């Protein structure tokens, strides 16, 4: 067991060193020639920031803001603002919160399905809260492109310790219902499983009802895949080893990470439940990176280079000044280098660099 953990720690360090070497090699050259790889802007809408779990590894447990669920008119207002700027895929669960804490989530998703200005969307859920009727309506949605079902633990004991919840039996009930109705599925599902270091699907098949259900669902539909993740992000330095306690998992720590120039995630915009617009729809748990509010400006003006609040973050990071969650974030990607994930994929090294 300790040997396996040491292996993944060593692999994690190796991947980090390769990443930093790649950036140290190419970023200075591209900065000198002003060659930037700025991603196309990506938009996320937070219809709720409420979650039913309090996972030890998640920044949600540290959120100190106001909890809120959008009413239908608020949701429509946000969606129309985004639709004016893009018809690409958007995200509905970019940061904290589970969509099924919103009891009116299905009508909202159906509204997107019928909206001519949005091409598609994706979301993540722990899949504990939906009712059977919601699941039936949910799996028949047409514009939902990808659903990630986050699974915490591999059996009841590990689930309780990681999620601090006693809702395991409800998760099993919902997964059983999904399995029995999987032929109605219209989109891709990824079961993203995070558990202890000694977990593997092969080891626990036949020993865990949760593992068995995931395997059964995957076998019944080509739209379903499962993945195992060995590392937990530090949520921009928000989550620490003290939060993890004695659980046998690996927490990323990038306090001494290589950073040079603006991060690509500055172009990932999140409209929060209370209509603030923040940068980085991934790890700003405390909503530190606010650049505007939809009651005061249109979205197109907030995400514009004419907005001094937006430009301050870009200019600061051009000068290698990283504030708030950016200081210790383990998800930094410089705009002065091609995406490492794409380079890795093109070289056929995905298996080495998978999480």
Structural features, described:
This protein is α/β, with parallel strands linked by helices. The protein contains 13 helices and eleven strands. It has helices at residues 2-32, 72-83, 105-113, 132-139, 156-163, 168-180, 201-204, 209-220, 241-244, 299-302, 308-318, 340-346, 350-353; strands at 42-45, 90-91, 121-125, 144-152, 188-194, 224-229, 231-232, 250-251, 268-271, 276-279, 290-293. A five-stranded parallel β-sheet has the order 2-3-4-5-6. A four-stranded mixed β-sheet has the order 1-9-10-11. Helix 6 (168-180) packs parallel to helix 8 (209-220). The longest helix has 31 residues, at 2-32. The relative contact order is 0.15.
Strand pairing plus helix content: what structural class?
alpha/beta
Strand content: 5-15%
Largest sheet: 5 strands, parallel
Helix content: 25-40%
Give the end-to-end Cα distance, rounded to a whole number of Å.
19 Å
Tally of DSSP helical segments = 13
**Radius of gyration, taken over Cα atoms and rounded to an integer in Å:** 20 Å
| Spatial strand arrangement across the major sheet | 2-3-4-5-6
List the helices and strands and how they pair.
Layout: H1 2-32, E1 42-45, H2 72-83, E2 90-91, H3 105-113, E3 121-125, H4 132-139, E4 144-152, H5 156-163, H6 168-180, E5 188-194, H7 201-204, H8 209-220, E6 224-229, E7 231-232, H9 241-244, E8 250-251, E9 268-271, E10 276-279, E11 290-293, H10 299-302, H11 308-318, H12 340-346, H13 350-353
Parallel strand pairs: 1-9, 2-3, 3-4, 4-5, 5-6, 7-8
Antiparallel strand pairs: 9-10, 10-11
């Amino acid at each position: 067991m300790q040997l396996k953990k040491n292996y993944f720690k060593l692999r994690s360090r190796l991947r980090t060193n390769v990443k930093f070497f790649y950036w140290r090699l190419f970023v200075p050259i591209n900065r000198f020639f002003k060659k930037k790889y700025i991603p196309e802007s990506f938009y996320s809408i937070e219809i709720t920031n409420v979650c039913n779990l309090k996972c030890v590894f998640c920044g949600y447990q540290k959120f100190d803001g106001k909890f809120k669920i959008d009413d239908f008119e608020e949701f429509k207002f946000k969606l129309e603002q985004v639709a004016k700027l893009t018809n690409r895929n958007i995200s509905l669960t970019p940061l904290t919160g589970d969509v099924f804490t919103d009891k009116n989530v299905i009508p909202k998703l159906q509204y997107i399905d019928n909206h001519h200005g949005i091409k598609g969307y994706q979301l993540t859920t722990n899949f504990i809260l939906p009712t059977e009727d919601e699941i039936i309506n949910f799996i028949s949605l047409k514009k939902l492109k990808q659903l990630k079902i986050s699974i915490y633990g591999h059996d009841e004991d590990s689930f309780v310790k990681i999620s601090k919840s006693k809702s395991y039996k409800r998760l099993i009930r919902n997964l059983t219902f999904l399995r029995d109705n999987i032929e109605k599925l219209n989109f891709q599902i990824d079961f993203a499983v995070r558990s202890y270091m000694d977990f593997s699907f092969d080891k626990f098949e036949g020993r865990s009802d949760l593992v068995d259900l995931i395997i059964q669902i995957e076998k019944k539909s080509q739209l379903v895949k499962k993945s195992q993740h060995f590392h937990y992000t530090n949520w921009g330095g928000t989550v620490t080893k003290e939060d993890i306690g004695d659980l046998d998992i690996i927490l990323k720590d990038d306090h001494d990470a290589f950073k040079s120039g603006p991060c690509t995630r500055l172009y990932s915009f999140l409209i929060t439940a209370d209509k603030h617009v923040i940068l980085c729809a991934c790890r700003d748990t405390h909503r530190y990176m606010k650049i505007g509010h939809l009651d005061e400006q249109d979205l197109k003006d907030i995400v514009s280079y004419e907005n001094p609040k937006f430009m301050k973050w870009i200019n600061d990071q051009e000068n290698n000044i990283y504030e708030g969650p950016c200081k210790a974030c383990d998800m930094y990607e410089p705009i002065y280098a091609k995406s490492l994930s794409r380079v890795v994929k093109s070289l056929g090294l995905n298996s080495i660099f998978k999480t």
